Amino acid sequence: MVVEARENGAAAVAVAGGGKGAAKLTVKRREPELVAPAGATPTGEKYYLSNLDQNIAVIVQTMYCYKAAAAPEAAGGGDAVSVLRDALARVLVQYYPLAGRLTISEEMKLAVELTGEGVVFVEADAGCDLADVGDLDTPDPAALGQLVYSVPGAKNILEMPPMTAQVTRFKCGGFALGLAMNHCMFDGMGAMEFVNSWAETARGAAELTVPPFIDRNVLRARDPPVISFPHHEFEEIPDVSDTAALYGGQELQYRSFCFDPDRLERVRGLALADGALGGRCSTFVALSGLVWSARTRALGLAPEQRTKLLFAVDGRRRFEPELPRGYFGNGIVLTNALATAGDLLSSPPSHAAGLVQDAVRMVTDEYMRSAVDYFEATRARPSLASTLLITTWSRLAFQDADFGWGAPAMSGPVTLPEKEVILFLAHGKERKSINVLLGLPATAMDAFQELMDAI
């Protein structure tokens, strides 16, 4: 099991094309404090994390920006810091594992020590207006990272709390909520349910719309483990193209590429053009196949280079029986597709899309339980060598995070957790467009830009 703090290039370098005006951002933080649950919670025991939680123990940083407005009546007219702090204490009574600390269990797996000590909470002030942050279409880790609190000096995830929260006030009266949450605590759906529950609590709700289902034992491995699939998602692929030298020698750039409904339909039309898919292809399948092939070409991979595509499939309704409503944990399973660079780039778009389509269909109850059992038997972690990992946030309801100041004016990621990750984000008021967000070495990004401009 890997418990290293992974400070990869994606989080450490200057970014071209970041939020407009974000360079003006200067933030003064006050001393961090601990927000403990407002009521009694279980302590003195270890909280079980499933094998699906073990696979993705990385820190995910997100932020929500709110314009100036009157505080909600339910909050007694308090300012954003006090409202969010008090509501956090109350919601932690039900989400009490977040108030604990990561540890290693007797099984030598990640678990949570239920200490009840609380979430690290930081109050901060920015020396500019919220408008100076610009948009969040392309993250700017150097600037926006000031809006999220990271524990200084932490050498591995065991030294990092499961979650930190920072509330930053701006001169205009607006504020930003920056969150750093360990993915082992929940996937995107679970994280949004938590944030929305926190927001409901801030607005004075007596009960949560979706209370958390805490017990993760429903995803325990079978005894003995039954591995019924090959699980190439864990496979280590040799970097025969020496992309490590490319990433090591150039600045990593972030860009986002917007696909509106018309452009998405063109991408889908390319995948369906030769009839190989039988007239059936989702937008996700077509877009994933396109960016997999385009990134492969942009990186200049050797024809014999094997390349892997990973993406998460929400298993909540695919498990038999379905996971309980409000399941507090990772209900996602990684599926995979493999191809050589030469095979991808010499074939029509339908080929890559077909590989993605097959990977989606592979995710059944038995496949997911086989993945759980595979980790139990091997303790292997999905390898990102020569890999593209697509994460889809386009269905996550960021706009529902209303703490009493209305929907966030902006929300999104502060950085990508790994250089191999591409995010699909919903875009526009009707959320029908998709922003494709990625980071690449400078020359590869220019090549990727040319390929996208041709669509």
From TrEMBL:
This is Omega-hydroxypalmitate O-feruloyl transferase. The keyword Transferase applies. GO terms for molecular function: hydroxycinnamoyltransferase activity. It comes from the Eukaryota. InterPro entries: Plant_Fungal_Acyltransferase. Belongs to the plant acyltransferase family. The lineage of its organism: Eukaryota, Viridiplantae, Streptophyta, Embryophyta, Tracheophyta. It comes from Zizania palustris. Keywords: Acyltransferase, Transferase.
